[in-house]
Amino acid sequence: MDVQAIVDIITEWSTGHAYSVFLGLMALTIGWWLSKILPSRLRKMLHNSSAVDETIGPVLCQLVRYSILIVTAIIVLSQFGVATTSILAVLGAAGLAIALALQGTLSNIAAGVMLIWLRPFSTGEYIEGNSISGTVDEIGLFATKLHTAAGLYLFVPNSELWNTSIINYSRRTERRIDLQFSISYESDIALARKVLLTLASRDGRVLAQPIPTVHVSSLGDSAVIIELRCWTPTSVNWDTKNEMRETATVVLQKVGVEIPYNKLDVNLTGTTPAQATTSASPMQSTTQQMDNKNPLKF
What we know:
By secondary structure, the protein is of the alpha+beta class. The chain has helices at 3-16, 18-48, 56-79, 84-101, 103-118, 158-162, 189-202, 237-254, 273-278, 282-293, and strands at residues 126-129, 132-139, 143-147, 153-157, 167-168, 174-183, 213-219, 224-233.
């Protein structure tokens, strides 16, 4: 077949199907334009509406976009002579094949739907789960977008968040602060308690109810561990905790409450003071003491 024959066939086909080609291109252009404009307009409308949760907005916008693209593809193919029933059959077969090939992606979609339905977290809340922590920016159809306290961007598949336990630090309006301080056994526990309670009562961010408390939480090897517990609004919990820890440490030292270092007292027995002084080293004295107590020699 020569070039002229090919040109004649193309010209004849174009002349007979020019109108369908024009309509197909128009439908493709309009559909593509609508898939960009409508989701953007819908996102702004949902953002300005107080009746719709911000978590649902991104998913609805994505559903609208993909629906427009699918309808556009069907219209364009029908303009080129492909029967609608054939298109639906092809889409059904393709959907089945895609579902089998992209099981992980579909699990992300199902997880996204469940996250939006049950709402264990919403946009703007700080969460932690599966070694992932950050503030939620957007819950999408396939993945959730977050940013960390260090400003890092996180793109997490929905299935990873759905299949793990999630700690939501922002859901409750109030949070408790637990601050532990080590003081020496010689220090006055009552004075340390008074200092910590005074600091808590003078901080305007600390709630009056529940009442702040100070108690001895444990006895360490070289220190008594006392713990301050008080409640604050969630929005200021982190800053209040850090500032109170620093302020309390300074004030305790000023009033004479010792905050000791870890220390170990070694008492040598079985030797005179002169022998302990003239011994070659603490290790030799300890070894000699062990030999005196244990008749077995190795």
